[in-house]
Amino acid sequence: MVLRLLAEVRSGGRQLAPALDRALRELEAREARAFVTDLAYGTLRHARLLEAALAPRLAAPEQLPDRVRLVLLAGAFERLVRGTPAHAAVHAWVEVVKRGPPKERRLAGLVNAVLRRVDPHDLPSPPGTASLPPWLFARFEAALGPAAAERAAAGMLRPEPLWLSASDPAAAAQRLRDEGAEVAEGPLPGSLRVRAPRPLATLAAYREGLVQPQNPASLAVVRACGDVAGRRVIDLCSGRGVKAVALAAAGADVTSVERDPSKLRAAAANAERLGVRLEQLAWDLRTPPPLAPAPLVLLDAPCSGTGTLRGHPEIALRLTPEAVERLRELQAQLLTSALACLAPGGRLVYAVCALTAEEGPEQVEALLAAHGALRPLAAELPLSPTVAAGPGRFVLPEEGLDGFYVAVLERSA
Ligand SMILES: C[S@@+](CC[C@H](N)C(=O)[O-])C[C@H]1O[C@@H](n2cnc3c(N)ncnc32)[C@H](O)[C@@H]1O
Asked: What is the CATH number of domain 225-411?
């Protein structure tokens, strides 16, 4: 199952999270689900490091059949990152190769020898730097500085806990514990760190709308909007509405705008589960939407997702500098539409889950340079660590947080 997943993501162009969701439907036992999840995510997150560790022990890795290369990566992840002893990890992978087609079977001896000999000292260092394509790590360095860039990249190699947001965290925690979950407080109020006994969607706390899966960094973007109770908020690029429902739960009168109608439908169903109300508009925001200006506008723009490599390791396999440039151009267009939605005296919160300067501080600096009526405010980000950059701040993707850039701008009255 893991090899099929790795193949679908590495060569088949698929995203890991939905492919894994589908695969896990075949598994009942919690331990088996956790094992497959950790192995698939871990192998993809560490792929560059594992390839470098394996390279000196392989004469021509590029000539090996794809499946055998994936066996070596997954086996090396178990040996080098999880620290599984050779006697426990190697046999199972060799058996997988022996059950393959004849041209793979004859490589069983090679797989056995390589996986027995690989050594944690073979992993390149520092790990964060070596885990990313050099051009992408250079972008992190330019945005964050060298030390924070290494911490960010290394932080995204480690697994993510299940984070849930709750309007009533005490009641939600109690309900979750009643169902056998382990619950701890998250890094900001309203955020819980949870170890669930079963898939989240099967828990009553979820079905009854007490909790919403949300990374604390995403909740911090909502908090950067300030006190929204009773205020009209236009949530641009609302996607599946994770921030929209948090705004609505905090008492905002939310209008969500999104290009993709299927995401709007998913957001509406989720809002119903949570018992909150959203106005919705399907609109391509490359032109301003037909909405009366509001005192608060959130633009959570489409971006490279480079702050979410922990949960989306496939991004590092495929992203190109050209794609970042196209996103930068799109974000600039979306910011122009966001300004058209902003009432005089109002606030614009701009967020991207990206760790590049061009999508974050440079984007906002260009906007400020073009619009004298805007001034930056200090972004209240009740999380650490953060790094100041231009008019806003980066949240670093450590301790299970996603990486974000957030800036808060005010338009003169
Ligand atoms: C970062 S995601 C938004 C996540 C969402 N705010 C949340 O918290 O759940 C960016 C969204 O922008 C949408 N998008 C991309 N281009 C767009 C456009 N031209 N007009 C409107 N929405 C767009 C994408 O479909 C995607 O859902």
From this structure: 3.40.50.150
